[in-house]
Write a structure and sequence with these properties.
Helix content is 41%, strand content 22%. It contains 18 helices and 19 strands. The strands form five sheets. It has an eight-stranded parallel β-barrel with strand order 3-4-5-6-7-8-9-10, surrounded by eight helices. Strands 1-2-11 form a three-stranded mixed sheet. It has a three-stranded antiparallel sheet with strand order 14-15-16. The chain binds 3-methyl-2-oxobutanoic acid and zinc ion (ZN). The site of zinc ion has 6 residues, from loops.
Length: 540
């Protein structure tokens, strides 16, 4: 038993945190991360000190395979997990992806509910069980750590579920996961299901019992907590609760609930709470998925007290209305850090302190951009620096960049149709076009379309300020589609029109890169621009 002590008194058992942001979370429509972005998130998850990172579903695309491989090779600390259906080829590919990891784990899943067995596989319970056991044995012959998931467990006959669990343990599973795949469970009932397995399955003590809850009824965190009270010791979750449909159980909610209510739960996790906010921001930005303001733990309003009575209480003593200290989540009062005169050395030091590893070329690009932002913005806060660094390492990936924004000009005013003139460069050639639009941003996007010679459908567009100061950096996120392919683009600037133009050009570059490479059959499936990639939940 992995235990720690509560102020040197009571032993507290450990709950293992299994993060699936890069697999289940990445199934969110339009989330689409490229391998470099996936690696950066995995490195941050390692800093967050999760126990396991489910890095992907390698059979789903060559791009995912290479992303999982890179994570397995470079990320030290957590167990690296790859997902596979109960299919030989999936399992071989999963093993190929993770075999170089410090601690690899293959995760095999197969439906156990009659709905899945009959409607998806067209078979019966016994044959499905046989298939699962065969797959598990094969995975075990490759990798010592194998997790088995009984997909749709919450809608499965509990007697059959217990039989499956017992047999997969006998066949060598080291972790057995009980998913509430469709978010159907309610806490008491789900807790009972887990307690029932602990009672009925004779060899249950040989494995770590895990749960994986979806949020369709808004109960994912509650179901997960009910499960640990009844014997589950691994929780599968995602940063910001991202995931299929309404999402997965949220990592930060579970970790902070266990921490804040240790008097009740008497468990601990290894999550470093100081890294929670930074992880949330990174995932939100790279996936282009904003966090709702009232989201527990990481929402912008999670610590904002607006009623007079509450404000008064907080001023007298913070514990009157605050159960979590924002500083424990790594939330700082915008520590002002650098100015244009800070110099290279201070910048390098700060970047290192924040955990980024940049090569010389990247550092030079960051320095140049830092100077240009500092010129306009005067004070550079921690949050600004994150955006500047991330812009350099993600947005300017040379292999996806065909067009660059050189300049733009918009004329607009009361009662006047906005007109934009945009200059892009493509392989040292300057291309220029003008267009009117309903608003200045639409005019810019239309002018860009004219230059690249194709129409892109704008699926989503958002602009957000990084800090709450007047001269804040703005981040624009756009999702565009063309010929059934979708792509995400991000751009930042103190000027939101420029940030929007940069984001639009980046999204177009990604679509262009994808269309070009894939029409040549290069096999490098960059999911950042993708048609429908095989979805886990319908693929088994
Ligand atoms: O929700 C689910 O059942 C899954 C499995 C693959 C674990 O994501
Ligand atoms: Zn899931």
């Amino acid at each position: 038993m992995d235990t720690t002590h509560n102020k040197g008194k009571e032993p507290m058992e450990k709950i293992f945190v299994f993060d699936t942001t890069l697999r289940d979370g990445e199934q969110v429509p339009g989330a689409c991360l490229n391998p470099r972005e996936k690696l950066e998130i995995a490195l941050q998850l390692a800093r967050l000190q999760v126990d396991c990172i489910e890095a992907g579903f390698p059979i789903s695309s060559p791009g995912d395979l290479s992303a999982v491989k890179a994570i397995a090779e470079k990320v030290k600390g957590p167990t690296i997990v790859a997902l596979a259906r109960a299919v030989r080829e999936d399992i071989e590919t999963a093993w190929e992806a993770i075999r170089k990891a410090e601690k690899p784990r293959i995760h095999v899943f197969l439906g156990t509910s009659d709905i899945h067995i009959q409607k998806k596989f067209g078979t019966d319970r016994e044959k499905a069980l046989e298939r699962g056991i065969d797959a598990l044995k094969f995975a075990k012959s490759l990798c010592p750590e194998v997790e088995y998931s009984t997909e749709d467990a919450s809608r499965t006959d509990p007697e059959y579920l217990a039989r499956v669990v017992e047999q997969v343990i006998a066949a060598g599973a080291t972790v057995v996961n009980i998913p509430d795949t469709v978010g159907y469970a309610v806490p008491q009932q789900f807790g009972k299901l887990v307690a029932g397995l602990r009672e009925k399955v004779s060899n249950i003590d040989q494995v770590v019992l895990s749960v994986h809850c979806h949020n369709d009824l808004g109960l994912a965190t509650a179901n997960t907590l009910a499960a640990i009270e009844n014997g589950a010791r691994q929780v599968e979750c995602t940063v910001n609760g991202l995931g299929e449909r309404a999402g997965n159980a949220s990592l930060e909610e579970i970790a902070i609930a266990i921490r804040t209510r240790k008097d009740y739960f008497k468990f601990h996790t290894s999550v470093n709470s100081q890294e929670i906010m930074r992880t949330s921001h990174l995932v939100s930005r790279l996936m282009g998925m904003p966090v709702q303001a009232n989201k527990a733990i990481v929402g912008a309003n999670a610590f904002a007290h607006s009623s007079g009575i509450h404000q008064d209480g907080i001023l007298k003593d913070r514990t009157t209305y605050e159960i979590i200290r924002p500083e424990d989540l790594g939330i700082t009062e915008h520590a002002m850090i650098l100015t244009a005169r800070s110099g290279r050395h201070a910048l390098k030091h700060k970047i290192g302190e924040k955990g980024y590893e940049l090569n010389e070329e990247e550092f030079e690009a960051v320095y140049e951009r830092f100077l240009s932002v500092a010129d306009k913005k005067k004070r550079i806060y921690d949050e600004d620096l994150d955006i500047i660094v991330q812009d350099v390492i993600f947005a300017h990936l040379a292999d996806t960049r065909l067009y660059s924004l050189e300049s733009y000009k918009v004329s607009t005013g009361n009662g006047k149709t906005p007109e934009a003139r945009v200059r892009l460069s493509r392989e040292d050639v300057i291309l220029e076009a003008s267009s009117p639009g309903d608003g200045p941003i639409e005019a810019i996007f239309k002018a860009v379309d004219k230059i690249v010679g194709s129409f892109h459908k704008l699926e989503d567009f958002q602009v957000k300020a990084v800090t709450e100061t007047k001269e804040a950096l703005g981040i624009a996120t756009v999702r565009v589609s063309r010929e059934g392919f979708r792509a995400l683009g991000r751009g930042s600037s103190t000027d939101i029109l420029r940030a929007s133009a940069k984001a639009y050009v980046e999204a177009i570059n990604r679509i262009h890169h994808f269309l070009q490479h894939h029409s040549q059959g290069c096999g490098c499936n960059n999911k950042c621009a993708h048609q429908e990639s095989p979805a886990t939940h319908s693929a088994a």
